[in-house]
Amino acid sequence: MSGKVQMTVICFLGIILFSCGHRYRKSEVTTELPEGYVHGKVITTFAEEGCDFLIEANEGEGQKIYEAINLPDNLKKEGQEFTFKFHKIRAQRTGSCRRGIYIYLDDTKMK
Predict the structure, then answer these.
(1) Would you list the DSSP string of 4-32?
(2) Thinking of the domain 31-110, which architecture would CATH place it in?
(3) Which of 49, 81, 47, 87 is nearest to 68 (CA)?
(4) Annotated domain spans of the chain
(5) Rounded distance between C-alpha atoms, residue 35 and residue 32, angstroms
(6) Nearest to 95 by CA among 59, 58, 56, 49
(7) pTM above 0.85, yes or no
(8) What tens digit of pLDDT does each residue of 2-34 get?
(9) Predicted confidence (pLDDT) per residue in 34-68, tens digit
């Protein structure tokens, strides 16, 4: 192989390896949240089951679904992303929705 061909191949491989590694750095994908806050989005996937607005959140290692008893009206839109702080409650469920963990939102911040 000639020197020009070798140099072209090495440059091409270097660019491919650099771009692949650069794309998946964890520090670029995650953002820091204030302590006690969780990032989530509003879903209406289970509306047929009586669950008008649920919150889908990635918390810890898995995905969780919450039903907030005090979800503000300005957040009641499919796909609305926001950050929230909450606590679980043991109140008797009043509607027909049986999905999600019952919670009370202590604070919300729009995304």
Answers:
(1) HHHHHHHHHHHHHHHHHHHHT-HHHH---
(2) Beta Barrel (2.40)
(3) 87
(4) 1-28, 31-110
(5) 9
(6) 49
(7) no
(8) 777 777 767 666 566 555 554 444 434 456 888
(9) 888 999 999 999 999 999 999 999 877 789 999 99
